[in-house]
Amino acid sequence: MIKIENLSTSYKTIHGDVRVCNNISFDIYENEIFGIAGESGCGKTTLLKALYDLIDPPLQIDEGRVVLNGEKNGEPYSFASGNIKNAWWNNISYVPQAAQSVLNPITRLKSHFLDSIPKERRKMESKRETLDRVQKYLEELNLPPDILEAYPFQLSGGMRQRAIIALATYMSPDVILADEPTTALDVVVQRGILMLLMRLQKQLKNTLVVVSHDMGVHYQITDRIGIMYSGSFAEMGRTDDVFRNPVHPYTQMLVAALPKVGDKSAKVGIPGRPPPLTDPPQGCRFAPRCPLAKDICHADVPAFKEVYRDRYAACHFIGENISEVSLV
Amino acid sequence: MKASRYILIRIVMWVLTIWMGVTLIFIIPRLMPADPIQNMIAMMEHQAGPMPAAEREAMVAQMQRQFGLDESLWNQYTSFLLNGVLRFDFGPSLMNFPTPARDIIFRNLPYTFGLMIVSLIVSWTIGNIIGLLAGFRKDKLSSKIMESIAIFIYPIPIFIIALVFQIVLGFVLGWLPISAVIFGEVWSAQWISTLIRSAALPMLTLVVLGLGWWIISMKALSMSTAQEDFVMFARYRGLSEGEIGRKYVLRNTVLPQVTMLGLSMGGVFGGSVIVENVFNFPGVGRLMLIAVGASDFNMIMGGVTITIIAVTTATLIVDLLIPFIDPRVRRS
């Protein structure tokens, strides 16, 4: 599982620090699909980069760390920020965003699989053995095994994304991070990709972290979801629970804006726009857009606290009595 | 597009390019106001004194017949295509009468080609390796120094480079001959050693001339390729920088560079004409300049025609290599 301990990251730019993740602490469990939702620029991808330890300038970790631990082939392991790189592909893998251009256009698919085998594993099996194993694996995923001989430009978008998912999972890692895995695909193909990811997770019983701005994707596949707003989590909990009973005003307005079958009422968006991360407001970052904001909201940052079991939110007006917060 | 179609198109283009080149070469001298036969007779008169008008008329008619200039333009053109372009028969050289111009050109051609090909391969290889390193590891100090040197040498005209080498390596240090001196039986040890010594400076000049361009273009290419998603994703998969450089950046950048190699052939020939003349190297470029000075029209026509065919053929060969290294051309 992954423990995120008090994580703060920022981008060092000439216009000053852009603080993207602020004091984030939470756990992602084994055998679950965890969704990270939020609008563009809220820090979803940055958080994912921190989870995968892709900390390159200008991004840096100011405080806290990410700890990845688990057990593979009967051997326990533990990696923390700074050396998660050593766990890449064996224990943790990454399905990238913009998947249409992430494969080398002039080499066959099979060389991508061979390239990605972690160094220490290369001595343990020959190229032939690896390819046989990959071939069997592709068959298990209902993918034609002859795509190994194909070049990326010969595959359709959907097939390419499936191949990339196979590429990210054939070493059966314990954690798979998927960054917008269905962007740029039509809904039919999207569904196929989501089903594939879900099936894989059930089969491997591992952790799948899905980042998406598409609430429909989260509703369909995730077990738990975290809603990010302006660099930190507004709310987190079991997905169905969050959708049915949102406790944070932002989530409430977000869920109210989602179209539902049979509902003919006009939907309104959340007025205003997220604050700039270079110059965030004091206090709660949602306060300028929140219909319930009081003086305290503009002064103090609300703590991200447990509302009830497995349910967290960051709002001053969530106390013992949840019904205090309601939409006008 | 199928590979066979690609090859067919290249070959058709090759034929068309040659045709256009030789046609131009046929037309241009005939547009000039000077009449070569009047020139020749004027030269003879200058040496042997004036001749009577009737004798002069007869001489003009006889020479026109001899050079085929009395025929219609169309007949001249077809016989030029048939004899000149297809059989390389351009008639006798006027300055080395009666040796056929073809023989002299073919004697000089290997020198020019050797010079061009060796210097192209050397500067292309070294330039691309330096460019790749400079673009892929652009934050290293060595990369920045290399690029600065490339930017510095790139705009220097070739004859300046040639003169600097001539003065520094030939005159001041005295390591290499300033002017080419090649002697001895062909393929004898003496011939080979004098050839190498004589070719060293022209070759070095051509290598330096090409180097700047190859470094700058490869650096730009590999820098943008290094930012492609597929390079990022290779890094995310834990590949070493060396592997990424070789399998991902180099393999993708070498393709446009091979195309550029084909396109640069003509330019390198132009460079070698200048270099041959500066260093007195016995290639076609040197021969052409002498032929122009001596108004040896057959030699000029022959030299230019053979050069056009040679350069376009070299370009064709490079073009035909592309399907073998780029699966997108081969497969799509």
Describe the 3D structure.
Chain A has 328 residues and is of the alpha/beta class. Chain A has 2 domains: 221 residues, 3-Layer(aba) Sandwich (Rossmann fold), CATH 3.40.50.300; 84 residues, no CATH class. Chain A contains 10 helices and 12 strands. In chain A, α5 runs parallel beside α6. Chain A is globular. The C terminus of chain A is likely disordered. With 332 residues, chain B is an all-alpha fold. Chain B has a domain of 182 residues: Orthogonal Bundle (MetI-like fold). In chain B, α6 crosses α8 and α9 packs across α10. Classes of the chains: A alpha/beta (328), B mainly alpha (332). Chains A and B meet through loops of A and α9, α10 and α13 of B.
Question: Could you write a compact summary of the structure shown?
Answer:
The complex is a heterodimer of chains A (328) and B (332). By secondary structure, chain A is of the alpha/beta class.
Name the descriptors.
heterodimer, A: 328 residues, alpha/beta, Rossmann fold, 8-stranded mixed beta sheet, 10 helices, globular, disordered C terminus, B: 332 residues, mainly alpha, MetI-like fold, 80% helix
Instruction: Give the overall silhouette of chain B.
Output: globular
* Number of H- or I-type helical stretches of chain B: 13
The major sheet of chain B is characterized as: none
Largest interface: A-B, 26 and 22 residues
List the helices and strands of chain A in order: EEEHEEEHHHHEHEHEEHHHEE
> What is the SS-derived class of chain B?
mainly alpha
CATH architecture classification name of the largest domain in chain A? 3-Layer(aba) Sandwich
Cα gyration radius of chain B (Å): 25 Å
In the predicted model, the low-confidence regions of chain A spanning at least 5 consecutive residues are 320-328
H/E element order of chain B: HHHHHHHHHHHHH
CATH fold node name of the largest domain in chain A: Rossmann fold
Distance between the termini of chain A: 40 Å
- Proportion of strand residues of chain B: under 5%
State the helical fraction of chain A. 25-40%
Q: Largest beta sheet of chain A: what is the strand line-up? A: 6-7-8-3-9-10-12-11
Residue windows where pLDDT falls under 50 for at least 5 positions of chain B: none
Basic shape of chain A: globular
Radius of gyration of chain A: 21 Å
Structural class of chain A, please? Answer: alpha/beta
**What's the mean pLDDT score of chain B?**
87
